[in-house]
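Quick note —
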Amino acid sequence: MQPFRCIPLANMKEKTIPLAAASLVLTGLLFAQKHAADLPTGNLFSEPGPTFRVPDGELTSPVSFIAYGDMRFTDPANKSATNPRIRKWLVEKIAAERPAAVLLNGDVPLSGDNTNDYAVYRQETKPWRDAHLHVYPALGNHEFQGSNPKQCLENWWNAFPEFRNRRWYSAQLGSRVYSIALDSDASLLPDSDQARWLTEQIDGLPPTVDFVIISLHHPPSADIQTRIEVNHNPRPNEIALRDLLSKLQVKSHTRFIVSAGHIHNYERHVIDDVVYLVSGGGGAKPYVVERTPDDLYQSSLFPNYNYVKFVLKADRLEGTMYRVADPEAEHLEVQQKDTFYIQVKHR
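Predicted structure written out below.
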């Protein structure tokens, strides 16, 4: 059987996966994207500079941000596609952390065509509004789950009216952190509307910005699976983004951190000085991951309901993955299971 060789990992020997597995990857790409990707993007707002601004004076002290995804808000009676107890508890835990912003990397509802799922989201995330948290979601594949992608997108905009007519956007969070939310259901290939906008955003970053946190749903880098969940391996669409970020990182005065989901677990990779996280432990049914050597998180603990907290320091950004220690425990708690540091880039 001939290998499929278009998923290399930088700084590693080229990875290969069987052709049958590769076919599943491409089939999954076409099936998941064909409707959402058919929606026009040329009419979307894609203005230069940050879409939103949060001044330094409005940030919590110490300045922190939380990133995670794959909550799948839906009827709490549904305990197969998602864990409603964990989902709701993580929301409350994050509210108690009082971060400056919460970055959601997709699959917020279980079904994008179900307005009741968005109603559950609003009900269960009331602690975030009570704490006056800034919430910046990215579109996932479940946001387009349904027969009418245009209506799914309308449901999204109705749930998040501040993002209307945008499928990607940016937010400057104080003077030193810049957040970019991308839509991996739309094209990220070279010369696409979204790739051009992203390049312009990064080229135009203010000189005070030290870190750019990019959130999207499908991961540009992940442990390559050959037996289970092979259709969640990195796809050509996000590999194109990874290649673009490798080029932009060389000339940028900032450091890039990418937070993705889709895989209901946790992973951490570094490629060409870009940190790639998978934080898909927001409540959706957990996925087992066969970890490859380049994954900087090697724990075999399972399941990994989790979120990642970033704390801004003078010379670095500190990241910590908090994992729900025992999902079956009467009293839930988190444990620190991965910690990493991203230094300010020398200018």
